[in-house]
Design goal:
The protein has a two-stranded antiparallel ribbon. Strands 3-4 form a two-stranded antiparallel ribbon. It has 3 helices and 4 strands; from the N terminus they run ααββββα. With 115 residues, it is an alpha+beta fold. The protein folds into 2 domains: 62 residues, no CATH class; 32 residues, no CATH class. 30% of the residues lie in helices and 24% in strands. The longest helix is centred in the N-terminal third of the chain and has 18 residues. It is rod-shaped. The N and C termini lie far apart (108 Å).
């Protein structure tokens, strides 16, 4: 019985560490896809690096696989503007009126203008 030669990298990847390396690659791919799908900007990139170290001695070739992934960086939170107001903070600019507080009493404004 003669040995069957292997010349395909994809076949070698499936044989490394008795298939556990391919399973680890699948897990890394799943993590990258999940991280990309959950990006708030719906845009980003990830990478999976595969290193195969080949050691040869006296007709024997040992292949040591390594996988590492680089997930997209989380974007920092953006600034939220606040204004100081009587020793406290407010999200409303002091020189602007609040358009969403509802209708205001017109008589109150006339009284303020009269003073």
């Amino acid at each position: 019985m003669s040995a069957r030669p292997i010349r395909s990298v994809t076949e070698i990847l499936g044989l490394l560490s008795r298939g556990r390396f391919a399973e680890r690659l699948d897990e890394e791919l799943e993590k990258c896809i999940s991280a990309l799908e959950n990006l708030p900007e719906e845009k980003g990139s990830a990478s999976i690096d595969i290193t195969l170290t080949l050691n040869f001695q006296s007709g024997r070739l040992d292949i040591r696989p390594k996988v590492s992934g680089k997930l997209p960086k989380e974007k920092a939170f953006s600034d939220t503007p606040f204004w100081t107001l009587d020793g406290a903070l407010s999200v409303q600019h002091p020189s602007q009126i609040d358009m969403f507080a509802g209708p205001r009493d017109a008589t109150e404004r006339r009284e303020r203008e009269a003073v």
